[in-house]
Design brief:
- 55% of the residues lie in helices and 15% in strands.
- The two termini are 35 Å apart.
- The protein folds into 2 domains: 120 residues, no CATH class; 208 residues, Orthogonal Bundle (MetI-like fold), CATH 1.10.3720.
- A hairpin with a 2-residue loop joins strand 1 and strand 2.
- The chain is built from 15 helices and 6 strands.
- By secondary structure, the protein is α+β, with helices and mostly antiparallel strands.
- The strands form 2 sheets. It has a 4-stranded antiparallel beta sheet. It has a two-stranded antiparallel sheet with strand order 4-5.
- The longest helix has 37 residues.
Length: 397
């Protein structure tokens, strides 16, 4: 009797699963297939963690990442790892040993930093430190023709600090700036540049590719000529030419938006081609003809009927475009054509690893490289997972 009940329960469960599958929306089906991809799920978790780190970078950073936050007494300093035990015993509070600067005959009376293991400096949670703003925005145009200033909210509380001196868990650079704080802010800057660039290219691709595929004919031919012309523009020579005309009085924020806009203006042709190809094959379908007969405008047909028919692929393309935008910003900043100090971006920080003595003496300079690799790989694996999940003919079931 119990076996019969178990069999009936299993049959009803299978039937419920089939009903849920056939009645599920496209979004639910994509999410169900995406969850089966463990690599993509792990990459998605890492990506969300990186975004949260970027959003909360001022709170997580014990020091101002700019020149104002440098430690003059600890330049090119190695990472400081908090400890719980030393030769004096153990403590439930993490601590660091005190650093002392001295001069001696052996060093030709140069300043030398030594560790005094007899003195402790205790790490504090939710410590009070430098003042920062959340949800703030400031943009000063040359000539004061157009200024934006959103004050946001002031805070002075940080996740951790130390009672005396400084704590640098990723070490410091040649100027004494905290690499940990700079790395967190650099992640957010690179994400912001990629987001703005992707949004600009995304809107241009949908508008240009949508109207080109919908109307076709001569209009399509002219648009494709323009698209091919934009695709042939080399990025590095373009930025070299633009860098020569950038005024020196431009602020870091102005340069930031300039780089983002340029990346967006040269990144739309690939998606525009895909949108155009799809609309050329779909514009003569019956549902499109029915919408035309009802008096719908071309913009209405494209926005409400044609583009939603392959929205999942657009979303996948949007996610996959992020790593390329981040790579472009990093590469341009790395060769000195993109963002520059005092802006903290991954490309700006990677410039420090080009020095010959870094590999031999200051290996902690490579820590931001790990964040850069993790960010790009997370986007790539999430994009691959979404692409497989959005394909109804994929073997990933």
């Amino acid at each position: 009797m119990s076996q019969t009940n178990d069999a009936s329960d299993a049959t009803s469960t299978d039937q419920q699963r089939k009903e849920a599958y056939f009645t599920a929306s496209q979004t639910q089906l994509i999410w169900a297939r995406f969850r089966r991809n463990r690599t993509a799920m792990f990459a998605g978790t890492v990506l969300i963690l990186m975004i949260v780190i970027g959003l909360t970078a001022p709170f997580l950073s014990p020091y101002d990442p700019t020149i104002a936050g440098r430690d003059k007494d600890y330049q090119n300093g190695a990472p400081q790892i908090p400890m719980f035990c030393d030769h004096k015993g153990c403590s439930w509070r993490p601590f660091l040993h005190t650093l002392e600067r001295t001069r001696s005959i052996k060093t030709n009376f140069r300043w030398v930093t030594k560790v005094n293991t007899d003195k402790r400096r205790y790490v504090q949670l939710f410590a009070t430190g430098w003042e920062y703003r959340l949800l703030s925005f400031e943009l000063d145009m040359p000539g004061k023709a157009f200024d934006i200033d959103i004050p946001g909210f002031k805070f002075t509380t940080h996740l951790f600090g130390i009672d005396k001196g400084g704590i640098h868990i990723f070490g410091t650079d040649a100027g004494g700036k905290d690499i940990f704080s700079r790395t967190l802010h650099a992640v957010w800057t690179s994400l912001a540049v990629g987001t703005i660039g992707v949004l600009i290219s995304f809107v241009l691709a949908l508008v240009i590719g949508g109207f080109s595929g919908y109307f076709g004919g001569t209009f399509d031919g002219v648009v494709q000529m323009i698209t091919d012309a934009v695709r042939t523009v080399p990025a590095i020579p373009l930025f070299m030419a633009l860098a020569a005309f950038v005024p020196d009085e431009w602020s870091a924020e102005m340069r930031f938006f300039f780089i983002s806009i340029i990346l967006g203006l040269i990144g739309w042709p690939t998606l525009a081609r895909r949108v155009r190809t799809h609309l050329l094959s779909e514009r003569n379908q019956e549902y499109v003809l029915a919408a035309r007969l009802c008096g719908a405008s071309p913009a209405h047909v494209i926005r409400h009927h044609l583009l939603p028919s392959f929205s999942s692929y657009i979303i996948v393309d949007l996610v996959i475009s992020f790593p390329y935008m981040v790579l472009s910003e990093t590469a341009l900043s790395f060769i000195g054509l993109g963002l520059k100090d005092p802006v903290n971006s991954l490309g700006v920080m990677l410039q420090n690893v080009t020095k010959a003595d870094v590999l031999l003496n200051y290996q902690w300079y490579f820590i931001p490289v790990l964040f850069f690799i993790a960010l790009v790989l997370a986007f790539v694996f999430v994009g691959d997972g979404l692409r497989d999940a959005a394909d109804p003919y994929s073997d990933n079931r």
